[in-house]
Amino acid sequence: MIGSQSKAKIEMNTSLPPQTAPYISQFLLGPASMVCPDGWSKTKIEERLQVCAHPGLDVTQATAQDRSLTLVGFMLDPDIPDATDADITTRLLEEHAELGTLIAATARLGGRWVLIATYGEKKFLFHDPFGLRQAFYTDPKLTGDLWVMSQPKIGADVLNLKIDDAAQAFIDSYEFRSTSEYRWPAANTPYREIRHLLPNHYLDLDSGSIHRYWPDRQLEKIDLNDAVEQLSVLFKGLIKAAAIRFDLALAVTAGLDSRLALAASKDVRDKITYITVRQWMAPDDHADITVSASLLDQLGLKHTIIKALAATTPDFSQAFKKHVFLAHDHYGKDAEAILNCIDRKKVVVTGSGAEVGRSYHDLPQEYNGKITAEYLSILEDMGSNQYAIQHLQQWMDGLGDMYNINPLDLFEWEIGSGNWLAMTQLEFDIAWKDLLTPYNCRTIMALMLAVDEKDRKGPEHVLFYEIIRNLWPEVLCEPVNPHKKPEPASLRRRIKNRIKTLAGLSD
After folding, report:
1. Are residues 163 and 197 in contact, defined by beta-carbon separation less than 8 angstroms?
2. Does domain 224-356+413-491 correspond to CATH entry 3.40.50.720?
3. Rounded to whole angstroms, how far apart are CA atoms 157 and 193?
């Protein structure tokens, strides 16, 4: 067991420029005796616990008698768009003296945040619905004290942890290296002592135990028209709140998810910069460029195109890889171009995470309705890798009562958004002031999942188009993803056969 680290300290490479220093907009929660990096803020949680935060990451605290709430990151209230983090945190503290009602009260809130709650001697931590403000935690049985951090490498640096042999074998495996969008399986990390707090779970800061808090009841099915009205109010309110709070950019592509975000920005469009990142391999006539340009021109909005570099500069490449362990190399080109253009002065709105509401995954008939860890591994491009399957099975074992939630929707929520998307957003903190996806709101996701699946799924995506028409119908003057055609039957058969082969099924 690693002993208590009374003088643990994060080592920073001060030779790098401040905007590209490691661990931008990240945090570390641990014993009150730990030494924060130079320039980081220190916020006391209680006598034995404190949080250190990079100066680019806001920390807001409200206290009352023996209770406190500490917000790491930012929250947005669609019902009170001009509410500040202090307003929201104070109201939550005043109105909720118990963890269950506190979690429920955050359902309508957006943003990217971690919330630390103390109620007398009890201390808890949970985060935004998708877990985009990531939280990783140590096993106190192995590390002596409980530590929580925004990525496992911070904990590894502080506690001198080594990558587990089995994890290293996975990193070196074909399954991990064969896709540029590699990810980590479920709640596992490269370090035996550190776990990932997945969405819909809270962490007991005394025991180090985690508890699933959602789903906690049947989702009451909702009529399509009612859902459209309620969702329109929430999307519009979140974008308005963000525009009041931040210097805002909104990323526009030819896709459906960003089109909905664009539609929600109608009332505050004069306060937003509309951007498209042209990836370095994309041709000039790629639909993400041409459709976005034509669309924004017709709407009378200025369009800024940020062209990614063919290669990152050596200094930035070094900083990018230090900023996030196992960062995706191909995103470095985009991130450096954004940094050069934006210089971390804007918060960007993206359409990320919408896949959860679109009922993204199907279960082939050959599985006879039974979801297996082997199938989930295939969905994650991890094939038949046993390390991946083992940890995905652990996720399945922790599901509990699913009520009427499709486990594949929850899988996309907790593993797709909560793992891969959360880590890629962390990587882009090096370029943006912060990132916001309006889909990262529990009430929005619950409403979407309560709509009949046929109205959520493609290729029609009825729910999404109806929300767009309700918010700003003119944004449909250009086609959505005209370069993407429906999969031909032959391709569907090839995908189906690949799944069968990897899963050991036969006709």
Report:
1. no
2. no
3. 13
Please tell me the pTM assigned to this model. Answer: 0.92
Long-range contacts of 143-147 (CB under 8 A, 24+ apart): 143/1, 143/2, 143/193, 144/1, 144/2, 144/3, 144/4, 144/5, 145/4, 145/5, 145/30, 145/31, 146/30, 146/205, 146/208, 147/28, 147/29, 147/30
Instruction: For 307-347, write each residue's pLDDT tens digit.
Output: 998 999 999 999 999 999 999 999 999 999 999 999 999 99
- CB atoms near residue 173 (< 10 Å): 17
Residues 6+ apart with CB under 8 A from 490: none
Q: Domain spans of the chain?
A: 224-356+413-491
pLDDT for position 466 = 98
Q: Side chain identity at 500, as an amino acid letter?
A: K
Residue with tokens 């250190």: 52
Between CA 357 and CA 269 the distance in angstroms is: 25
Measured over the CA atoms of residue 329, residue 278, residue 254 and residue 285, the dihedral's sign is negative
Alpha helices in 106-147 (DSSP H): 140-143
Collapsing DSSP to helix, strand or coil, 274 comes out as strand
How does pLDDT run across 99-117, given as a tens digit for each residue?
999 999 999 999 999 999 9
Structure tokens at 195: 């776990």
CA distance 473 to 39: 47
* Cβ contact 377:388 at 8 Å: yes
